[in-house]
Design goal:
Its cofactor is a divalent metal cation. The chain is an alpha/beta fold and about 220 residues long. About 35% of the residues lie in helices and about 20% in strands. The protein is built from eight helices and eleven strands.
């Protein structure tokens, strides 16, 4: 078994689908979909909504050797998702990694573990999702790792080439063949929602519009 496995870079989601996804909200899709949402402990450090193509990485606890190599392979439009194999102590992503990812044209980073150097991440204006901050960082220990293989991010299996949508509410991973339809449905749902909110703001009763009041009244008999 080789120490490192680096599979070919995945095909990228089309620019048209990415544009649609970036008009959708993860919380809108959450009205009907129950899978593909990473654990809510993985939160954004900046207020952003971005979408892109998943590039996947697995690296062990104190080591970030493969991460540094992977940064040189990223392409514009990619989102790098890092499976930390359960480690919650070592921050693999900080200011230097952020600069390299942004220079490569990556859209964002998602780490199932802590990051560090939040001031530098903010200064770079680079969208980042992680499990908070940690002061202890990884090193170039050459322990091995795997790239562009299926990984686990916040309880979700992520395949290289999946569509990824990240916003203030969380991270959603979609099979590429489902991304466009889900984005279009979300955009339409959001438009209807705004229309409904406008009516409620003018005095319409939310319970009457949603059907909740009818259910409550029926249940009183």
């Amino acid at each position: 078994m080789p120490k490192y496995v680096v599979e070919p870079m995945p095909g990228q989601i089309s620019a048209e689908v990415i544009e649609l996804l970036e008009k959708a909200e993860t919380a809108t899709v959450g009205h009907w979909r129950h899978w593909g949402f990473v654990n809510r402990g993985i939160q954004g450090l900046l207020r952003r909504r971005v979408a892109g193509t998943a590039v996947t990485l697995q690296i062990p606890g104190p080591d970030s050797t493969l991460l540094h190599h992977a940064l040189g392979l990223l392409r514009p439009g990619d989102i790098l998702l890092v499976d930390r194999l359960g480690d919650d102590r070592h921050a693999c992503w900080g200011g230097g990694v952020t600069v390299a990812a942004k220079a490569a044209g990556a859209k964002a980073g998602v780490v199932d573990g802590p990051c560090t150097d939040i001031e530098e991440i903010e200064a770079s204006d680079f969208p980042m999702w992680c499990r908070g901050m940690a002061p202890i960082t990884t090193r170039i220990y050459d322990l091995g790792g795997r790239m562009n293989v299926p990984v686990a991010i916040g309880g979700v299996v992520v395949n290289p080439g999946d569509a990824v949508l990240c916003d203030d509410c969380g991270v959603l991973v979609l099979p590429p063949e489902e991304a466009e339809a889900e984005a279009r449905r979300a955009i339409e749902t959001q438009a209807r929602g705004l229309e409904g909110q406008a009516l409620v703001a003018k005095g319409a009763k939310l319970g009457e519009r949603s059907g909740a009041s009818a259910k409550v009244l029926a249940g009183l008999n």
